[in-house]
């Protein structure tokens, strides 16, 4: 299989310009809303993360990928209708457990890095899902 450098650059750009800044700000906000790291606090953060941020974030990610791939607004809308639900369901198989662990054990300064470690495989899935016709 040939490596697609353009796709790598696009996903890296999304990571640097969107994912990192959004998650960094989001985790700071969650710590302000729910200080501490008890199990209940971690559960509250995870529920808000997965109930509010994940659905919005995923829609933005799919849309940004479409824009960077030169899709029209109509094509992006079709892609969202085709891929969003499956991808969000897959998200819920992986990320709630990751985020509970992240919010309970990791200090704020390490949360984005922790997520990025797990994201290596998640991003492979997202790349595959968003590049399919």
From TrEMBL:
Pfam family, one: Mpv17_PMP22
Protein topology in the membrane: Multi-pass membrane protein
Transmembrane regions: 52-72
One Gene Ontology MF term: channel activity
Cellular location(s): Membrane
Keyword line: Membrane, Transmembrane, Transmembrane helix
Signal peptide: none
Cellular-component GO terms for this entry: membrane; mitochondrion
GO biological process: regulation of mitochondrial DNA metabolic process
Family per similarity comment: Belongs to the peroxisomal membrane protein PXMP2/4 family.
Protein's name in the database: Mitochondrial inner membrane protein Mpv17
Gene source species: Callorhinchus milii
Phylogenetic lineage: Eukaryota, Metazoa, Chordata, Craniata, Vertebrata
């Amino acid at each position: 299989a040939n490596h697609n450098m353009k796709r790598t650059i696009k996903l890296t750009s999304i990571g640097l310009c969107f994912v990192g800044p959004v998650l960094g700000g989001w985790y700071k906000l969650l710590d302000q809303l729910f200080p501490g790291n008890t199990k209940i606090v971690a559960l509250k953060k995870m529920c808000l993360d997965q109930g509010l941020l994940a659905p919005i974030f995923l829609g933005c990610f799919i849309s940004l990928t479409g824009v960077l791939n030169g899709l029209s607004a109509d094509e992006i809308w079709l892609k969202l209708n085709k891929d969003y639900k499956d991808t969000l369901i897959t998200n819920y198989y992986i990320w709630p457990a990751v985020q509970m662990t992240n919010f309970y054990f990791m200090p704020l300064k390490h949360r984005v890095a922790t997520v990025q470690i797990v994201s290596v495989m998640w991003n492979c899935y997202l790349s595959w899902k968003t590049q399919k016709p």
